[in-house]
Design goal:
Blueprint (H helix, E strand, L loop, with lengths): L4 H20 L9 H16 L3 H4 L5 H19 L2 H10 L5 H19 L1 H7 L1 H10 L4 H16 L7 H10 L3 H27 L21 H19 L4 H13 L6 H7 L2 H18 L2 H12 L7 H12 L4 H11 L5 H14 L8 H11 L7 H25 L6
């Protein structure tokens, strides 16, 4: 043990308790969520290490937080224009069979997640989707599973599709178009898996056992001006990413343009930002940064690498991300790995982004998007159980990860 043994032990204890909290999602007897746990842990780390807040900022990846914030503000523009409610209404009121509605749900959720981040779509769409489906006499549960899995699988296609991809892309300076080229194919094939598994499990069980609840047939109002501005700014942002301009600065410029508005109050946009997710990221950066600074951590990881256990091979990375994503969650998994894994090869980072995202479908606790869908649906009286999700999530995850592994091996991105 180093000369700062008491501080080192404190950091290890705080780290262990923090990631136990990430696994359970709460503190027994309290209503504290993962964001609250991460914030409290970060403060304890400052006390244990004697670091000032200014010094602790060195552990925080500010460009990642800036990019995530910018995308949240842009998505808030879409939300306040009524776009997400309109999409959910149109999906639930579309003509055709229950299977067709499921396909539309998955495709729309995936496409939006690839551009506007999956947690945002998972928050916006469930309530109105549930109400519309119940109005048609359909059970919302298989559609919620499709929505959650679709947002995860669709988000795997782009470097801005979800929080962990954003972090990986920033740390590894991953190319926007190469990311799509490497991760887009297994993502698209994965959507077919999501559809096939849910249809196989819910065939002939689409209808609610009780009578349909009458719902309005009037679609939510769309504010065309704000929506048009949001679309134009999204296109501009994607062009900036495509040309390799700094993603964090580009996102902040777009966010500033969103705030300059004659039709929307700034406070409404501020409220649309998921501050809990930003706090979660910031807190975990500090906790894992303190752990990574311990001499013992570097020595342990160096020993693992020298023994052939570096997570830059498929046989290590795939099971590791599957285990970590479904115990502590895929966002904490990626933050932890990137803090202790010094100078990972770029090709391994593409694989890490893909596997950590797909692994999040296994259980409800594997992804923040899953948790958000469950909580938002519960708010309108729809219960998506852990077992219902796992029954579909386990085969979806194993099949999509197998497809991703075969693809990455075939194109030579990663060795077994």
């Amino acid at each position: 043990m180093s000369s700062g043994a008491p501080a080192d032990l404190s950091v290890l204890a705080i780290f262990g308790l923090t990631y136990a909290g990430m696994a359970t999602g709460r503190i027994p007897g309290f209503r504290t969520d993962r964001a609250g746990i991460a914030l409290a842990a970060a403060i304890l780390i400052l006390i244990a290490t004697g670091k000032s807040p200014a010094e602790a900022v060195g552990w925080v990846d500010l460009p990642t937080l800036a990019l995530l914030f910018g995308l949240m503000v842009l998505s808030g523009k879409f939300s306040l224009s009524g776009f997400y409610d309109y999409c959910a209404f149109r999906i639930s009121h579309a003509g055709g069979s229950p299977e067709r509605l499921l396909a539309v749900t998955i495709i729309v959720a995936a496409a939006l997640s690839a551009v506007l981040a999956n947690d945002i779509i998972a928050f916006a769409m469930p309530p109105l989707l549930c109400l519309g489906l119940r109005g048609r006499g359909l059970n919302p549960v298989p559609y919620l599973i499709g929505l959650a899995a679709g947002t995860n699988v669709g988000s795997a296609a782009t470097v801005i599709g979800n929080p962990q991809n954003i972090l990986i892309g920033q740390v590894g300076h991953l190319d926007f178009w190469r990311f799509i080229a490497l991760c887009g194919v297994p993502s698209v094939l994965g959507l077919a898996v999501v559809y096939g598994v849910i249809v196989a499990q819910w065939r002939h069980r689409w209808a609610l056992p009780s009578a349909a609840v009458a719902q309005s047939d009037e679609p939510p109002a769309l504010r065309s001006g704000p929506l048009l501005k949001a679309v134009v700014l999204t296109a501009a942002l994607l062009i900036a990413f495509g040309f390799g301009l700094p993603r964090d600065i580009s996102a902040l410029i777009v966010a500033a343009a969103v705030f300059v508005s004659r039709s929307m109050e700034s406070q409404a946009l501020v409220r649309s930002v998921d501050w809990g997710l930003l706090i979660l990221f910031g807190g975990l950066f500090i906790v894992t940064g303190a752990l990574a600074d311990l001499p013992e951590t570097g020595a342990l990881f160096a020993d693992l690498v020298s023994s052939g256990w570096a997570p830059d091979r498929l046989g290590i990375l795939a099971p590791l991300t599957l285990l970590m994503s479904n115990t502590i969650g895929n966002v904490p998994c990626v933050i932890l790995l990137l803090q202790v894994w010094q100078s990972p090869p770029a090709e391994a980072l593409y694989a890490l982004a893909l596997f950590s995202t797909l692994a999040g479908n296994l259980l409800i606790t594997g992804s923040l998007a899953n948790i958000i869908v469950v909580e938002r649906a519960r708010g309108v009286g729809v219960h998506l159980s852990f077992l219902d999700h796992a029954r579909a999530g386990i085969p979806i995850t194993l099949l999509t990860m197998a497809i991703a592994a075969a693809w990455l091996l075939a194109i030579g991105v990663i060795a077994f």
